[in-house]
Design brief:
The protein has five helices and no strands. The N and C termini lie far apart (49 Å). Keywords: Membrane, Transmembrane, Transmembrane helix.
Length: 99
């Protein structure tokens, strides 16, 4: 029998993997197609906050995990920075034109 807490934990891991990989892709796009590779590296490194193995490792080292609210706020910041300030859609067009 699957309990609610087990289902919630599994769902949060899937969401963590999905969003972490999405943010990594945004970071890679900003690293190679754009005028600010440092911003791309910064976004790429922030993606590790969302990946479950990195979160477990951080919890093992420090003794506490990053609160879910902080992850939501960080994710919102990343999306606003990448879509608005980082002009992600224009960089995706540049990426597609280079292939």
């Amino acid at each position: 029998m699957i309990t609610t807490s087990h289902l919630t934990t599994s769902l949060s891991k899937v969401i963590g993997w999905f969003f972490g990989l999405l943010v990594m892709a945004i970071g890679i796009i900003n690293m190679f197609w754009g005028n600010d590779p440092q911003f791309g590296i910064f976004i790429f490194l922030l993606a590790f906050v969302f990946l479950p193995p990195a979160n477990t490792y951080f919890q093992k080292i420090s003794g506490f995990s990053i609160p879910r609210v902080a992850k939501w706020l960080l994710g919102l910041f990343i999306l606003i920075a990448a879509l608005g300030v980082g002009e992600l859609f224009q960089k995706i067009d540049l990426m597609l034109m280079s292939f």
